[in-house]
User: Fold these one by one.
Assistant:
Number 1:
Amino acid sequence: MNCVALPILIPLVLMIMQIFFRRKIFSQWLGISGSLLLLLSTFYLFGQVTKHGILTLNVGGWPAPYGITLVIDYLSILMLVISAVIIFCISIYAVSFLKTTGEKQRFYIAFYALILGLNGAFITGDVFNLYVWFEVMLISSFVLITLGSSREQLSGGIKYLSLNLIGSLLFLAGIGLLFGKTGTLNMAQLAEILREDDSAILLNTSAMLFFVAFGIKAAIFPLFFWLPASYHTPNITITSLFAGLLTKVGVYTMIRFFTLFFVQDQPFWHNLLLTLAGLTMFIGGSAAIAQYEIRKILSYHIISQIGYMVMGLGIFTPLGLAGGIFFTLHNMIAKTNTFLVSGMVFKLKGNYHLKNIGGLVKESPLLAVLFIIPAFALAGVPPLSGFFAKFILIKAGFEDGHYFVTAVAVFTGLLTLYSMIKIWNEAFLKKSPEDPSHEKDKIKLSLLEVLPSILLGLISLGMGIFASSVFGYTMEAANQLINPSIYIETVLYNQ
Amino acid sequence: MNSVILQIAARYVRWMLLIFALVALIRGHNYPGGGFIGGLLAGLALIYDGFAFDHKRISKKRKINPVGYIGVGLLLIFISLLFGILSGDVLMKGIWISLNLPLLGQLKLGTPFIFDIGVFFVVIGITILFFLSLKRR
């Protein structure tokens, strides 16, 4: 049986079950076991992809350019596996960090709706279908942001929704132009038509609309304003989920579109991508330095690190793309983990502001270790995953002669290190500003609370230690992207 | 809002809208209409009371649970997906049967119709949910 649709079907079934069985215990355990099932199914699909190459499924039995085709290649499956890992960890984390029972029940429903949209966006082979999945994601993430329905969350949610709706509008306009020019929206057929076409320069209009739309979703340089305005408002569980997954879908689609069919006029696009990548890195990194709220520092870091992923795309050699994909995978894990740790800091100290907390290294040494791993992974300290990701990117940048943007990347690495050390000094090393004489009862973290962070930390470490095999997979993905003839062949002719 | 005209009209308009909604739903496969439009019309019919009388009337007197509607709709959608697999073909494959009815002539029924009914219920649920949450503020 063809299992390509499993990453969509599992969240759909789970969402339905969450709606019908809303007992407290049940919804929690269903949430965790369901995400475990999703994780296992992505492992199975990963095995299938390594064995058989690109997997396709023509939904409804309509053959390729006419119906919607679901396609899983190396890039899709890597994103699916890593996001399933994050989803599993978040579903455990939600049990202890969401406050009320009602909040938990509504969380799990919207959570699976979000995953439905996310996985759909990763595996679809049709541009309009991609738009639909983006909308599913947008609506469910809006529900998640405003879940606590406090004033602050509503204002953050409205900013998030309105700016992203503009993105969706541009996306739709781009689809219209593309369909008007080519008469198809199947990605493989688009690639077949556009790669042959010399007059494809006309497509720059629709390519630019797509670029701005995905740029808004991915929060790259001039378009990132919604992210710092909204990411610190919801419950920390939801912020961690968004930090790991949402912006990366924008990066994923950008990689997909600009390797598969928007490959005309390469000098212009690659210069634009590299310039914006450099600016995104630098501005995100330096904005983070000015912040004193942990969640805001980390939010600006999300932006800064999107720059590295776009840089991989802008270099556009197999090595550069592989570096960009490696960086994306590493960043999803490490970024989520830092947010999870900041949630635990909040639980112990009751505050996110660096000036009001301190002394955590004595209070909870385990938490200090849990913070050090993702923080140093983000800063790029060997032997953690971030070092190899940055190393590959910088090597690719120098080999292809992009000295300036590579220098910016190295310098931004220092900015990241500075911010991480700032959090470390203020929250962990510094003496606690609270008066020690009337100390509150010490709150201890339970195993269920730290388990997701431990898992993600181990994966960061593992991706560093087994970097060569992870790099092998990302290199496969990059080769598939650079030579899309196999993709086109499999989708269109090899049913 | 307390308007006598609206309250009396509500009795009749509600049923008209519901019938319209059903017509739109059924003709949807080949003509303009379908689950989404039908669902919006039916949702409008159900929240008409909320405009004419009081929003609490929807959830109390009529005992409507919007999330339940969404659940039923999603379940129907999921069931319609499964027919394709159960008949040994791919996911979402449309299965059609045609009935010869004495008065109506030939009637073609297929799994896309179940999908449409699912969409119909999801849209009703979402419409009521939005209405109730906006009214509560």
Note: Chain A touches chain B at residues 1-2, 5, 9, 12-13, 15-16, 19-20, 57-61, 109 (CB under 8 Å).
Number 2:
Amino acid sequence: MPQLDSTDTLESDTKKDTIVWLCVVALTAICVVLGDSLGVLYKYPDSLVIPLTGPLNQAMSWFVEVFGWFFKAIGWLFDWPILFAKTILHAIPWFATLILATFVSYRAGGVSLALFCALSILYMVTFGFWPQSMNSFALVVISIPLAVIVGFALGTWGFLSARAYRVIMPTLDLMQTVPAFAYLIPILLLFGFGSTVGLVASVLFAFPPMVRNTIVGLRGVPGTVIDSGLMSGATPVQLFWNVRVPTARRQLLLGVNQATMASLSMVIIASIIGGTNDIGWEVLSTIRKALFGESILAGVVIALMAMILDRVTNGFAMRSTTIIDDEMKKSSRLAWIICGGVFLAAIAFAQLIPLLSVWPKAWVINPAPAMNATLEWVFLEFREGLEAIKQVAFFFVMLPIKLGLKQAVSPFTWGFSMTPMVTAIYAALVLIPAAFLAYKHRILQAIRLVLLGLVLYGGLTGTAWIALCAIIVVLGWQAGGRGLAIWIVAGLAFLLVTGIWNPSTISIYLCGVAVLLSFTVGSAVGVWASENDKVAAVVRPIIDTLQTMPLFVILIPFVMVFKIGEFTALLSICTFAIVPAIRYTQHGLRNLPQDVVEAASAIGCTRAQLLFQVKLPLAVPSIMLGLNQTIMFAISMLVITALVGTDDLGQQIYIGLGDGDFGVGMIAGVGMAIIAMIADRITQSISRKMQAKLGLRQEMLA
Amino acid sequence: MSTSNSPTEAKLSCRNLWKLYGPNAASHLSDESRLPQNGGNAAELAQSIRDQGGIVASADVNFDLMPGEIFVIMGLSGSGKSTVVRCLSRLVEPTCGEILLDGQDLLKASPKELIDFRRYKMGMVFQSFGLLPHLNVFENVAFPLKLQGMEPKERTKRAERVIDLVGLEGRESSYPSQLSGGQQQRVGIARSLAVEPEVWFLDEPFSALDPLIRRQMQDEFLRLQQELHKSIVFITHDFLESLRVADRMAIMKDGAVVQIGRPVDLILNPADDYVREFTNDVPWELILTAGDIASDNTPPAGIKEVPASTKVADLLPYLAEHDAGVAVRADDGSIFHMTGQHLIAALASGVTDAAA
């Protein structure tokens, strides 16, 4: 529970809080001491589980039976543009595509991006991934305009009508927190196998960010611009298209950028249903066959594609606000015409030289066998070291949090067992600092320390459900008041009643450990990067790249080194979740009110004093938002790690997908969304409270 | 409080204008007998609305804008002056009242008519310029013409003419972000003039500019007005600015007009202490004329004679060297004596006594 410690600063230790927390500690203590003997209070009784999966599946199959033809028809309609895009993309010689893509990259991001794009395409071609890349790209190309149109229309509606806004926003929240995998199940059932599933899923996944950006952009148009448009005599329609939309252009293009990234990410994930011969499938199938060299080579293609799409769309969004005078407009038109000419010439040229159209199989560079051999050698050579790392992390960090010291400590791993003596020592280790804190009148902190000790002793999966629920509800009540508490009670009730409490606790545990690690390391790096420009210059491209990376790809190196299992999952989650922790900490520290920093320096703060006594306290709201985003990132990666064998909710979704079991997958998916939303609301409320206390306003980073 | 001119001559008349915010705003004014035009007291009504939790942004505002006149509405922030000008253009919907433009009530205009009013009869300049960031100078200026559906050729001609008028020739293809504040406001002015409006609203047009630029823009604004003779409502919070540009001015406080008159009337006869607060800081010598402070005495023979409208500032050097003072000839031909002593007395004791 990483939030516990940081909450102290924001709450005055009121009596009421103390009493409530004391009750929670007492409850938890009783639960830990009595353990299983509590019966239904310890383990939620199966008899109270409402079997929702059956009815859900029946409802779904009824739905498919009745409306299936409709979706099949839509699927059939969608097949055509996909087929069309694929045919075109395959028919154009790669050399011509290279020229066009390089030119577009040049327009968006200058020489360096153009060079990067050209080299990336050469990589795809010479390493033999061109056809698969184009299959994936075809889906992206079709889904982006659909997602943008749908997103823009819904965003406009939400902007114009307050009622629509109230419906759209929570729906988007839900859509963006339900894991991507879970989307696939109903789509698969409705549309049947094939590329359409990827397309539909990708549109559904990609339009929410467009909606958000449309609303933000349209709302952000300054009042005087609107007034001046009105005074120019604009009709409502003119006002919208000639004033609002162009003024919001940059935000809209950022929406296109985010929609593009989401679309690509979903297209890759959707290849999990198989049979698509695209680049995602290439990675997945080679991972499954433990062909790591091949999967890395294919994973690089995805990464390159993501980076190019991101930089290009982002480049156009940023450029939309820079100045173009008429000269430049003219020369730009000329450049496009020339590019078109060269493009056509390249197509013709490729007819003469077949090499430029289809790269010969014999010329494909394939270092995969060599890579596999090298990897093999490395593993043999360093196996003990790697195993040791894994074992230590597993037995001394992960297992205690998962099962509790009570069960994790055994002679086999720790060298001793949890005898009454050891338990007493542990209790003393917790109680003495707690007593010290209490003596210092930091009672709330003392209570939380005891609570932490208790939960660590019992373990997340080994603590009675009633105690865990109480802790979460009280935390929510403190952060967001009664409304949030009631909301959380309802959410937790869903997890219990649908019988997914156990996998949920495993999800919470995996996510919790990952968040703890990545937040600690990430905020430390963020502090460092905020104080040191050189570090920042190194860190920035790394986190930028990690963030654009489709989640799949992050798995590959860890699976290679540590094989499947929870440890691999943990590392992958940490790698992804560290991004916001670094970013927000650095952002918060670097964007403080300048006058405060100057005043502190003028008073004579040393650098360390400045950092710890001025900057960090002021940056706390931003850092809290970083924690919030860290949790969100962790959860989205957590679901993907089901591929490497976790036994949490993500795995249930994955199983649901594999068996076409709508009920199982959907309940697990909604469960995951509930966990994400609870964590989100609690951390956001805390952050908001802190901001209010500091009188600051913190905008969310995109 | 009201002007002596008859309403029929006015270009634009604002009658009993109220703007209330808050829940059930309109219901506060439903009792017609309490309205000032029916014998009620505006100040009492406004206070009772405030007591009930309503927000009164403008309370019974009345004034006439004469053709070719610069009418300044002056007030501190929150006094309701921006609300009034926004009500005049119906960017803000008044709660009740009448806005007569050439005798036609704007508040009764349909949305379509309103758009036509804005397209052909009104121009407005905003404090924060309100330029469209994605259009260059020329396109910004031509924007209202484009919305009207004017032919590109005619549009270009008109836009270029106003761009020349505000001195931005050569910057047509620049974008707002490339211009200084002063230049951006020139674009704003050009855009509002492009439609050749009959009434021109300027909402604190120079408040966002540096003092030197502001001064320069005020001069240019006056120069433009000498050429164009628009009927202008000019909003400002700067009393000195209003003295510089106003033909007549209104001072607002808490949504109500405190006093209307020529600047010199306000200075010489402030309606209350609130108005006097502003006039205290005024450099009298720039406002007062020889006629305002000359004594009733007959001047000795043989001294220099000046017309009564001479600004006293212009007399300072002469009076410094000539203890005998000057003879002041009033418009009706009568002649009075004025010495440095009179001037000092006037400046020292406040103008009220000196002018009496």
Note: DSSP finds 15 helices and 13 strands in chain B.
Number 3:
Amino acid sequence: MEHEITLIVNGVPRRTGVPARRLLSDCLRHDLGLTGTHVGCEHGVCGCCTVLLDGRPVRSCLTFAVTVDGAEITTVEGLADADGGLSAVQRAFAECHGLQCGFCTPGFLCTVTALLRENPAPTEDEVIDGISGNLCRCTGYQNIVKAVHRAAELLAEEA
Amino acid sequence: MTTKLFGEPVQRREDPRLLTGNGRYLDDLGREALAAAFVRSPHAHARVRDIDVTAALDVEGLVAVYTWEDLPERVGRALPLLIPHPALTHGRTAYPLARDVVRHVGEPVVMVVAADRYAAEDACALIEVDYEPLKPVVGLEEAVQGAQLVHEDVPGNVGAHLVQEVAAADGRGAREAIETAPHTLAFRLDIERSASMPLEGRGVYARWDGRDLRVYSSTQTSTSVRMAVAAALGLPLPQVEVIAPDVGGGFGVKIVHPWPEEVLVPWAAMTLGREVKWTEDRREHFISSAHERGQVQYVRVGFDDDGRVLGLDVTILHDHGAYTPYGIIVPIVTSTQLLGPYKPGSYRVEFTAVYTNTVQVTPYRGAGRPQGVFCMERTMDKIARYLGKDRTQVREANFIRPEEFPYDQKMTFQDGRPLIYDSGNYPEMLRMIKELIGWDSFEAGPGRGIGIGCYVEGTGVGPYEGGHVQITSDGRVHVSTGLTSQGQGHETAFAQIAATELGVPIERVSVVTGDTRRFGYAVGTFASRAAVVSGNAIALACRKVREKALRIAADALEANPADLEIADGVVHVAGTPSAAVPLSTVAVLANPLRYAFDEETAKATQFAGAAAPDRPPVAEGEEPGLEGRDYYSPIRSTFAAGMHAAIVETDPDTAEIKVVRYAVVHDCGRLINPMIVEGQIHGGVAQGIGGALYERMVYDQHGQLVNASFMDFLMPYATEIPHVETGHLETPSPLNPLGVKGAGEAGVIPVSAVIASALEDAEGIEVNRMPISPSELFELRAARMG
């Protein structure tokens, strides 16, 4: 049996029918065609599938789509400005070489976007703590940590 | 010159798409494709008596169910043994779907195709396979006893056995040299299994249009997948194209091919006349891809009062898992690269590769080197401890000296070629790493220690790679090479090479990798070879194009080609910037046209008056177009090197281990992009720390992998990885035009050795196994207390 739901994804209302067991990650990727959200483990450990649900980072692979009917969801596709300009977090990741294969990157970008909204000037420990729920197999995290600090700088400059 | 980009930390050209969700990984493609899923063996060793699919047939959305018996003869054949070797006397590979016997948990038994993955997995759950369990072989030492067999026709479970020996200058063998040495030591080392574990698993997506097959695979080698798929399906090669899209990490596991799914998914697409896709899930990756590392080593060493090694004798038991599709590359690399920057007086190494009822073992970043380096570096530390000498002093006493290059280790390397080091400067590197970490001023104390590890890495193995470079009439430069990318930034590094060679702005250069439609001849991305082999091939192709561009421009400018240079995409007479012609125009002139489609191309049409009427429009020996293709085929590998040092602290109560400082000095010859090289080192070190302290594949006595999830297989997060301090030494390779050596695997190689060295220093105990957990350290402490 399918359930009709409406998700406000990156500011746009999207209506779709989903079985109760449909994961939010699968709904975003396969029903709505937003493949920027990646699935790395499907058991909530790696953080690749992180999206913002009403502004807070959640694992979309541990969320049933039907349970978030009516919610506001931001995916990596929604982080850039309306005119396509990269967000401060995205620019900082490029500048600091904070990504290699790019598979974990959307999850980090969503996590860091929320982190800096809550704490615009995090300390080194707060940055490490803030990204400690996301796995990256390529970068060794050093340049991701650097990118978070750089993003904080950029946001402060542009505020 | 504005276009000199080689050696600069240029920002990556792949980033904008990957940062905005516009990357295209395997599972992002084929939204309308049918989904495949597999029933996999829950037993480590069993005979398949019967498969009953009846209950699955009612699942809504089910399209097809296949067992081995449903496969045509050619498709159902055992998968190829990719790298045969005379010492691999009993090589064995799996069937795409199990035929009679399963030999590890996770081996595919039934393939299901359905409307979507949910339905396919529903059907899988309803298929009943009747197994007759057989006794599994688990663990190296049980396997080598040979009481139970993984393959009935492989006695003693021994797939391969190889001895290499390098005698001393006086002709004596290592064993003899050890007998008469002033000092000897003997010990055993244990190294656990780990795995590449890219965050994107494997995946295959295939489209068949009735004549041509297009396959997308998350692979490290699209050209070889293409050949393997064409052979398995009986298709002419030109009718098969294979594309590696964006790949979410490889680290070795994706060099293996064809995987069962790479044969079965295209075959199903052809059989059903529908697009079919399979995306590996995480549990599948744990139990049905590949692992590495697992070895037991028995070491004997004889040395003099200065710590100089007179004889080294290493016997290795190598766990190959259930199958050997990638041959014995891993134990060969361990055996040869064990030597590192040293020149023992004599050396004997023997390995036995045995089968067990576990996931197959194929290269994972480092590919046998971490085990070899662990062995050699433990040896150096033990010698130093025995003699009461500084550990760096013993290493220095054994180094190959800078004036001894090229240095012949007199062994055969993994490519079948002599193990001859091309260049390096190990004493200088040691000086740099000691300075970077503060070796001489470090004060060890209870729970605080310093460690060091050195390695040499043969990189850039052949046989070859190629590059194609085309300049189009809009002045853009299109570069393609056949090998693939999994995050190494090839689109950037290769664009830097092309921009530098051709004198064009990097913004005008685009690079395509891993697409057989663009470049059909290639080997693949492994062995830290992309920059060396494809990088040089692209440089050589650019030089051909440059020469042609100068020839055509010289004609147009009525100048001598030797007087021309290219800057910012414009060819001009040196010292006379006004006598110039842009490469876009040169590209137009290179291709005589009958038809124009814009103002620029109109200049090349037949009434434009450019060509001499008494000569053919395309001169003899010329080809139309401003493009070139060339190949680079190295005579042998080029040898990168590095030295790492770390400071660790241990908790006196909990035995928790913390890496507080980590320093790397690295030499990969000339750097194309230092930002990318450092990124590769950071990532390698992080994987090395995983392997040194956290990651292991835990099999129980029944052959069940009991930690097959990210909750139980502990990959490090940001909280576990220290800041890595790096220093670079550049000894260019004399073997290739760019003077480069590989950098991709380097970071991971010595980390286990370094951490063991530091832990011994901190704790005063001997560390002979890796990884080491807090509870193991606790037990080692308890054992020392008696």
Note: Chain B touches chain A through 56 residues (CB under 8 Å).
Number 4:
Amino acid sequence: MRIGRPCAVVLVLALGVTGAFAASLSASTGTLGAARVATPRCTAAGLSVLQNLSSGTVVSVTVANLPSACGNATLQVTVNNGAANASGSGTVPAAGGSVTITLGSAPAVAAAEQTDLVIIGP
Amino acid sequence: MSRIVGAPGALAVAGLVLLGLAAPALAAGLSLASQNLTPYRTCTITGTPAASTAVSDASVRQASATSNFGTSATNNVATGNGANRRLYIRFDLSLCSPTIPSTATVRLATLRIYITAVPASCRTVDVFRVTTSWVESTLTWNNQPFGTTINNPANTSASDTYTIGSPAGCQNLATGAYAVGAVVTTDVALFVAGTATNFGWMLRDDVEGSSTTYTQTYSAKDLGTVGQAPQLVVTYVTAP
């Protein structure tokens, strides 16, 4: 009986810590976990992201200024023109540089388009 | 009761394990399980269709100081004795969807204009952030934001410069391509953060008033050709 109360306190603390870990998993902070482990990224450079057009549509996207640290990573690209999405993926050259990603479909060029790209790996 | 007393004892041990080991264990686990993920987002604003308000562009001409060229199919930058021309251009960043957050970090912003004629000399073009308002349909040489004094503002206050013309060695030699080298990352970062109002940019020859006239020509929004329309490409990240 004498150790019952401290045990309850420890249990509450333990559960609380678990909750804190869950709450701290935020992609927007660029960190994971209460230990604030930085999300690993291969670059923070200013990547050049240019659309390649054909007959008023976006057929591919060229991503340049890729450093060698991103070499062999998978590059996923999605273009959204407000009405449709088009995606594609490719591999970053081992030495970095540039890569052109052909889209699965060709959305029409609009006044504004959003291009999301994610480099996975290496 | 003995079971109850005994169970907390075990829980105490478990709790201590959690307290003492959970943080490094989870951190290590996440580190090992996660991959490099490098997300970027780009907003590309294009002057299309010609009637779109996404882009406002107009040249002003010293030799036609009270005329407006807001509906011209071409834009010019020129230097010459009484024949200087400047290009004003603005992109509506509010069209980006989703809106670029004010806390975003702008990694690269590039101004792209399509070249249709280059001067027979390698000229330097200065890109200046405009700090007062102007209207595409009423802009003239005489009422332009930077005034009528040539070589004003000083080229030292330019946001960026690029070169265009011949001979080899110039950044932009050929027609039929977008000009490279107009990087306006710092300006767009100010616009996004709300610390400067977006009145666009003015492009002029680095040395106005040349005894020989040198003119460069770009496709304007009003040409209505999608593949030649002016563009602003903004690449940013929303996480540090």
Note: The mean pLDDT of chain B is 87.
